[in-house]
Amino acid sequence: MSTRWEHGSDFHLDTDVGELEAPWRARPHTLWGSGRDAMRALLAWGRQRHGWQRAWVPTFYCQEVVGALARELPVASYVDSPERPLPQHIAASARDVVIVVNLHGTRAWGGMQTTGTLVEDHTHDPLGDWAWASAADWAIASLRKTLPLPDGGVLWSPTGMQGPTACALTVAHARASADRLAGMTLKRDYLEGRDIDKSAFRERLIAGERALACGEPSGISQFSAARLPTMPTRRWRAARLQNIAAFTDAVATLPGVRLLGGTFAASLVFDQHEVAARVRESLLAAQIYPAILWSLEQPMVPGIPDDQRDLARRMMTVHCDVRYTTADMRRVADTVRGAASLSGGARRTTRSPRR
Predict the structure, then answer these.
(1) Which residues of 296-322 are buried (b: 16+ CB within 10 A; e: fewer)?
(2) What is the pLDDT of residues 162-173, one digit of tens each?
(3) What radius of gyration, in Å, describes the C-alpha atoms of the chain?
């Protein structure tokens, strides 16, 4: 049976087993349908229980998530991006919530001070040093961004506080996660060379992803809740870091592009957004599907600086997780190098990925 090639953001089903090692296991935590469900549930709970009045988010943040959070509390922004040091202080009031994000896994630790309640978003590296050493009031992570799960989010308190009680799995969320699980299973079969039409899994994955972003907060699916404790998370994270390093080495002399140096993936920043667009087209033609994290063209909150909008246009993210080998990452790097070289470019600098 022949295998097929595809490199992208949608996981396929992986049945490798091991022991879950995660910072929330020994602390009070709840599982949710998604990271944004966990965040919305926390904000609604804090509004009702503690009188929270406003949520602060970084200017460089997923605007769809910002829109979801705005359903629970008014939202304001503070200036932050993966190219800047983490702000050390946010002038929030005692009834404000300040959401700090480990953007692209570029930060090893956060030491922000604020009068408000501090909530950390560890979606891009839920198993990293910062997540383990956190002293924030609350922490959340979307699980399906770094693990092969159809859905899932986790909320925990690094300081041991009790928060909102997990809610039941909604019918709408159960259908959405079932669509994604079906898509992941069909994609695995397709990649293993079975007679599967590619559109069969793409339609399921896309439909499931769209549905997960809608509706009211839900609990996690039964499949993801059962699968999560059996995942070899430490080994998978080590493989991702090894792949990031291999990709970084392979593009080290490429002009006109640099790497952010995070632990989530290989995030490329091009000097010119026209070159970024051409490279993206070449990657898509080679069945390599980069992610854009995130578009800021339709902001849900005021105050996003023009230079951050420009950064979002010039940046793309190549996934480096356990699905791929170092040889796969060099293959992706060769495609990037070929496309960028045809486009021309300027001098670049590279930062090594943090471990």
Answers:
(1) beebbbeebeeebeebbbbbbbbbbbb
(2) 999 999 999 999
(3) 20
